[in-house]
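Obj.: predict assembly geometry.
Materials: sequence records (below).
Method: joint structure prediction, all chains together.
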Amino acid sequence: MFNKVLEYAGSYRNRTILSGIVILLAVLLQVLPFLFVYRIIKPLIMGEAISFGYITVCIAGVCICLVLHALLYVKGLSMSHDAAYNILMRLRIYLQRRLENLPMGRIQEKGTGSLKRMFVDDVDSIEMLLAHALPEGLGNVAVPVMVYISLFAVDWKLALLSMASLPIGMAAMCVMYAIGSKDMSNYYKAGKVMNNTIIEYINGMEVVKVFNKDGDSYKRYEKDIKNYRDFTLGWYKACWPWMAVYNSVLPSTLILTLPLGSWFVLRGYSALPDLILVMCLSLSIGIPLLKALSFIPSLPQINYKISALENLMNEEPLKQTDRDFNGDGLTIRFTDVAFSYEKKLVADHINMVIKEGQKVALVGESGSGKSTLAKLLVHYYDPDRGAITIGGQDLRNMSLEALTQIISYVDQDQYLFNTSIFENIKIGCPSASREQVIEAAEKAQCMEFIDKFPQGIDTLSGSGGRKLSGGQRQRIALARAILKNAPIVVLDEAMAFADPENEDKLEKAISEAVKGKTLIVIAHRLQSVKNADMIYMMEKGYIAGAGTHDQLIRECPSYEKLWQAALESADWKTTTAGKDGKRNA
Ligand SMILES: Nc1ncnc2c1ncn2[C@@H]1O[C@H](COP(=O)(O)OP(=O)(O)OP(=O)(O)O)[C@@H](O)[C@H]1O
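Observations (raw structure tokens):
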């Protein structure tokens, strides 16, 4: 466990080790006063003559040891904390770099809750290991070991007596550790579920209120936090008895030394001064032993968290190189592509050719795999089989930066940062001038709502773009794409938030964003993609048909069925619109 963490320590590794040595010296200075006490008690018991000056020197020795102990302990702890927080910082930076190299899709799947827990809580818990358990634990274990060795040099029989509590204490400790480790994964899972439920509860509060489901939602929330409480208490209850045993037995070094040691002295097997020395030193190691033991209950937890972090670090990174895009043209080609989420195959035998400048639509029922193909094209995932190339260059054979320079991807849920609308659009091209940003906003039909804000384009969009409507957020995303001016545009349900009022505006924004570019569009509304150069009909992860609208109507029954359904739905909307006089289709 220590080794795993120290691998990320870099130059702070030595500082952590040095802090351990300083604390070890501090613990030694905590034991030394007992030797001074022995130097006073022994002559008194043995009836030897000692002077007041001698006693004063011994007491001064005790005081100096205690002061030095305090100073060194503080110094050691400050060094260990300094090293620990620097290592945590390195670990977080390392995790962030690993995360950046993971497929984007995998990052999204993990969810904000669990990633936050790993980056914040799990990494924080390592502070205990580095700043305390490692330096303090080592010092507080090493000194008792040294003391025991010197006790053996004094009188091996008495030394054995003072160690009598060790086997029972150690056995109790091992049992506790085993119980702790066994139930750790359930305890951790319960924490994870509670974490996700809390985040979901907060995120979904609006929906819960709208559907008046306060009761149900709260019940699940309550169930999960109760579950966590029960797991935690169950886990502690299983560990506590063993903790009590080793906490009380281990430091009880006098339990046999006093009665049996006295008997040894009376029978002449041991010398009285040796018994006094052994008793004094046995007493001295009680505090360090207890201190060392105090870290043990948290070790299984920390070990588990470190393993979880290691798993994240060991996840297979996205396959990419640092090459620029140097393809021959911009023809996109999917060759026998297959892809699964976990073990579930969601796309298979995908063969598609999208020529430069073509407008191509992916259609099909919900869950048929359209978005997955878009995500594969923008390299959110690596395909399990087959290849995706642009201009003959495999996506895995270029850097993600190179790919993002030639593709703009707009999906239903574009994230807006809590900065101004201007900054949010500028992300599309960080070097763009204010005029260029405004021009892109105009082309994306954003100015009409931006002008209504008192601060115009400098209005803050709120966390995640909360101050804007879904349709407005989508138009800002399109403005980003217009500003980016990449030659390939992928639109996934770009009209998802379109209401009759802004449908026209969105359509205009889209036609500006895709002018003269290759377009791959995923749309539920078949009418909007009827004129595409090529339509791919997806069915349960396969391409069921490909061609123009007219070809598919003739040759692909599933497309024909989907088209009929689309017409019926349009009819229904027109009829309903006719009834209340509003335009709905
Ligand atoms: N992150 C994921 N993990 C596991 N399964 C997923 C994930 N994303 C999608 N799926 C599954 O993969 C299949 C294809 O999903 P995909 O989103 O590609 O379909 P789609 O045709 O775009 O659907 P829609 O039109 O509803 O957006 C579905 O069965 C879906 O449940």
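Conclusions so far: The longest strand covers residues 344-354.
To do: check interface contacts against the pulldown list.
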